[in-house]
Amino acid sequence: MVKRVVITGQGAISALGHSADATLNGMREGKLGISKLEFRDVERLSIQIGGQIKNFDAEHHFTRQQILLFDRFTQFAVLAAQEAVHQSGIVFTSELLEKSGVILGTSGGGLQTQDENFRLVYEEGKNRVHPFVVPRLMNNAAASHVSMIHNLTGPTFTVATACASSNHAMGQAFHMIRAGMTEVMLTGGSESMLCFGGIKAWEGLRVMSKDACRPFSADRNGMVQGEGAAVFVFEEFERAKARGANILAEVVGFAMSSDASDIVMPNKDGAKRAIAGALRDGGLNLDDIGYINAHGTGTTANDKTECQAVNEVFGDHAKNLRMSSTKSMHGHLIGGTGAVELLACIMALREGVIAPTVSHRKEDPNCNLNVVPNVAQEAKINATLSNAFAFGGLNAVIALRSAP
Amino acid sequence: MSDSVKLRVIAIIAEQAMLDVAEVSESATLEELGVDSLGLVEAVFAIEEEFDVQIPFNANEPGDSDFDISSVKSIVIAVEKLVAEA
User: What ipTM was predicted for this assembly?
Assistant: First the structure.
């Protein structure tokens, strides 16, 4: 029998704030989290801005031993998971532990650990690295530590599909509960690529902006990277209801597609198939959707393709939709981005507040939708979509409905 | 020297287009030569490496940047200018 899946907890850390509430406050106010990057050798980069998390003191949150094992992307995931579990009020009884698991998205994994240690051996000529380099840099480190901290012994793994990693991860968590395989999943994603090697690699593609992320604005000039994490408690609906949980939203649909065409250029048909697939999977009509959290990277190629795809799927209803890109505020968290962006969907459903697309200066005829420029809008929203269209042509779209 | 810049730029573009150097006419656009957006980014990188220059090119606004990529000839002129300034 197919189970229903609800969200009962959320936690986050981003350039907009060190918690889900702080991140949502930032989104509500249209706060700009993008600032000047601060790390070693930043002066050798041509791109020097990002959605970097400032005033973050790992020693305030973790023991010395934990810091030795936790790359920054793991630190973010652990904090977000802790907040989500706390907020959900869930108690993991011994009977529940093996029916609960962790699925997180990341693209770079422990990239900072790699960068630091490559520097030590190649640049500084050291012949020895710390014994924990491998367990620190592996992509599944964050999911494993979250599983260990909460003692969850069910299915646990990491999904890496570049910019769609978090959406793919949350989709798997949704499927597992819906199929009756598990009852509770901690799911979302985490990323921390803001280091010299991380940005240097991205510079090569010539798609990064030096001044701002301006999705859907005619004067856009590229993407801006961010870092952080968001983790949610996905729970089987009857179990959440029985324990009197505060239900934030219902996860109703999920779809994935592959463009099978180009390694970096987005493809309208692949995007359309994922959007339409999520609607179909969730039993949603076109006019049920009031808000779409766009992939909205602020690259010319994405914006044009995404707007065309939405227009073609939604037809006449497209003009009634709101579609914003919160990447304009927190930057592109790559493997963690879908998770942080799901917060905006939940806020739209719970509070009727639509997070804006900030830094928007000039209407683009290729993006003739209500892109919520610069200031949040209010509207009653019953269902939302969150888009993710990754390099590699991998698309993943999640559909949420208001809490039942 | 300018001839040699021209020949070296054309050689780089020809490699990206998978054509013989003789098949790359100066009036051709990259599109006509079959160079896609990734090929263009690769060509820009190869030119930077070849001449040790920094090319002001952003794939999001290829028309707006100071580096004119509208034809093989315009690219050669832009590279000659960068090399002269370097």
Answer: 0.80
